[in-house]
């Protein structure tokens, strides 16, 4: 587990309940005040609330693995039509500059708080691996990601969920039509984006060729039989909330003979791939990411 900063009073690992409380807070199950009140109960163990919060709440300065100025990519923001959603969407389009011919495309879908710097960096990592990447921002109708997660969560919660899903469907179609795309489309998403990945594979079975949900909940039961594209599913052993939905989803995938592989990463929390927070687990994240890139290389090749 993650340890606190060496300048704080203790370097004991963060207790698991702190991760569980952060997950509840991040998904709107408890308020910010209650989250901090709960953290304060751990001070008897030698922790400080400020140290715990700093370790758990994202610090996006830590998340950059691929620079915007990396010569192997070109990144820009693009808008796209979304007539069944909010009318117009916007996202972060990143293309590999070293690819001489068409290549597979990957839609990168953020968590429940808009297109933050971590997810933009994931899009750059995808392009660095040789794919066209596009990361839509669900918050475009309300001005885009506001620069902090608390406000981002509130904004995303205020939007019509059905219209957000339609914006993501429109984003997938926009990406599929990009000149550099070879006609093969993958989706990778995290948390809320993991749900969107599952939803898109089931909603667009003739458009999406591969899906990689990281700790995402299943799509609506009635559309699960539509799934044709292979799924690579990443789950965290300590993520009780999402894992509770897996057995039923797996039964449905088996019943329709939908192709899938599930990896359960031991001893890690929901959000283990996000390298801007204390939930990050480097070994699990790197293994899951290498599997993801290999999966897309296999299924997005012409």
Can you offer a commentary on this structure?
The protein is α/β, with parallel strands linked by helices. Helix 1 (16-26) runs antiparallel to helix 2 and helix 6 (161-176) packs across helix 7. It has helices spanning 16-26, 32-40, 49-56, 117-128, 149-158, 161-176, 192-203, 240-243, 246-255, 282-299, and strands at residues 73-82, 87-96, 103-109, 132-136, 181-190, 210-214, 231-236, 260-265. The radius of gyration is 19 Å and the shape is globular. The chain folds into 2 domains: 16-57, no CATH class; 69-299, Alpha/Beta hydrolase fold, catalytic domain (Rossmann fold, 3-Layer(aba) Sandwich). The termini are far apart. Helix 4 links the parallel strand 3 (103-109) and strand 4 (132-136). Helix content is 36%, strand content 20%.
The proportion of residues in beta strands is 15-25%
Number of helical regions: 10
**Numbering strands along the chain, what is their spatial order in the largest sheet?**
1-2-4-3-5-6-7-8
CATH C-level class of the largest domain: Alpha Beta
Task: Indicate the low-confidence ranges by residue numbers.
Answer: 1-11
The main pleated sheet reads as: 8 strands, mixed
Rough outline: globular
End-to-end gap: 41 Å
Q: What is the total domain count?
A: 2
What's the helix-strand series? HHHEEEHEHHEHEEHHEH
């Amino acid at each position: 587990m993650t340890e606190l900063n060496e300048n704080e009073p203790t370097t004991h690992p963060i207790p698991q309940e702190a991760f569980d409380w952060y997950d509840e807070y991040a998904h709107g199950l408890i308020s910010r005040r209650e989250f901090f009140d709960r953290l304060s109960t751990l001070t008897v163990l030698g922790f400080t609330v400020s140290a715990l919060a700093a370790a758990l709440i994202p610090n996006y300065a830590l998340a950059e693995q691929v620079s915007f100025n990396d010569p192997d990519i070109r990144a820009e923001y693009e808008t796209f039509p979304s007539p069944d959603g909010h009318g117009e969407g916007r996202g972060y389009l990143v293309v590999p500059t070293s690819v001489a011919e068409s290549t597979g495309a990957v839609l990168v879908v953020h968590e429940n708080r808009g297109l933050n710097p971590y997810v933009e960096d994931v899009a750059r990592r995808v392009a660095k691996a040789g794919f066209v990447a596009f990361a839509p921002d669900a918050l475009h109708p309300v001005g885009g990601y506001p620069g902090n997660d608390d406000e981002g969560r509130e904004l995303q919660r205020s939007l019509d969920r059905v219209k957000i899903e339609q914006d993501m469907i429109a984003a997938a179609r926009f990406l599929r039509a990009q000149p550099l795309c070879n006609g093969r489309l993958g989706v990778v998403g995290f948390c809320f984006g993991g749900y969107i990945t599952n939803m898109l594979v089931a909603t667009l079975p003739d458009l999406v060729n591969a899906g990689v949900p990281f700790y995402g909940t299943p799509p609506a039961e009635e559309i699960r039989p539509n799934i044709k594209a292979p799924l690579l599913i990443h789950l965290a052993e300590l993520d009780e909330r999402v894992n509770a939905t897996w057995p039923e989803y797996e039964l449905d995938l088996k019943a329709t003979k939908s192709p899938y592989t599930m990896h359960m990463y031991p001893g890690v929390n929901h959000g283990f791939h996000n390298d801007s927070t204390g939930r990050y687990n480097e070994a699990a994240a790197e293994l899951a990411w290498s599997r993801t890139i290999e999966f897309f290389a296999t299924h997005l090749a012409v």
